[in-house]
Fold each of these.
Amino acid sequence: MLRRTRDVWRETPPLTKSLCKFMPLIGCLLTTLGVVGDSQGWWDNRSFLTNLISSFTGLMFAVPFALMVLSRLGEAHALLAERRAVQRHSERALREFHAAWAGMDRTIEQLRALAATHGNPELEESETMPPGFWLALENKLNFVGEEKLRAMKEQWKSLRDEVRPRRLEVESHWDFGQMLVFEEHFTEFCEIYQKTGIAAKRVCDAPRPANYLNLSTNFRELTGSAIVTWYFIESEYPTFGIPPAARVS
């Protein structure tokens, strides 16, 4: 308690400190004057002067109290209101990020289903796939890149570059460890996705065994990457330490 009081006093502006030092002293002098005046009858038949001096005396104590105590209470309420606003913004951004991620996951599942309909979900014997499969795979990868993956990147950028700084400003929790793990896996996924898209295009342009083999390897890496399997293993997408609104205090 004493340490917190010292911190509050150290953060107080110099002018406010001066007022808090001298105004109570003046108030004590006026109080003494009023008590002595009552005992000596100085204020008899001087109701206006009595009210004026008593009001001025109260002001000497009220102003420092308002500056030091009420202002701090106001700051605390303002901080709480800002935290609640940041929390609502965080939850909204997190929901949009999860929705974008779920959309990408569904597209990856469609890729798996596409492979399964042609006989081998692992693509171990890629060269046996009909040509139409490779064209469909390339189109689906382009769709992911243009729509789902781009949406996920945009929502993640919002969380990292907007939500995280605002949460730190109001001293709200942010899980840096989970953020670093996600960024590592997501960067790896984007690199594998890019290689898979290039390999799919090469197969469509030149259906050679070497191109089939590269695409088969890239496709297995893509569908088995940590980002794609995250929800299946963890049963939830990462929250980066954003708690339910009810826990904000």
Amino acid sequence: MTPTDTQRAAMDRLGIHAAAGDWCWIDKIPQPPADVLQAAGNPRLRPARLPLLGMIGAVLGAPFMPLLMLLSLLSDAEEAVKRALGTKEEKERWRAKKEDDRRRDATIAQQGLDKVFDGNWHGEAGQFLLRWYGHSTHHQRLLLATEEGIVLAAPPRRVSVGREKHLQVVARIPASEATLVDPFSGEFETRMLLMRFRDGSWLRVDTEELRSDLHTYLLRQPLPESN
């Protein structure tokens, strides 16, 4: 997976040469302790609500939801039939995938990666998380990996369409301060990436694409040397 032509055009407008990039989002930010919230200036902890145009689209699309749910159920039923009638080799592959999914979910829970960050509000990741929606009220970010570090771009305010047209750089994190990490080094196919800061704290983002351009880019990078 590589950045789309639209994303590339947006990068050109921003004047950024990125080795890889993809749209991403974060999970719900938990409520910080009162003293942490006050010290940070009571920052915004949620994205802005869907704009009027998006709300109208959601209302107009609501009548089609039952049909979409029915199609999804039919698709699941078709997949179940295929599994039941599949060859021995196909059944083995399905069982192996199911086992991989179980191991992935267990590993995520064991390492605490089912949370949006490591939980330390005083760490660099926690402090950056507090500023996340202060940078932009949009619910997504275009995350770019560059030679200098990590760049995050987004519309300054939430939009329902044309997100690339409204892009602005909202944060630059030098490579000396944070690195982008696939916590599973490609072992599992996920949308998950970590922004790991120099103090060891981390912030989880989920990419729009499964096994995104960013995941592929990170797999090509040399492993860090052991001390």
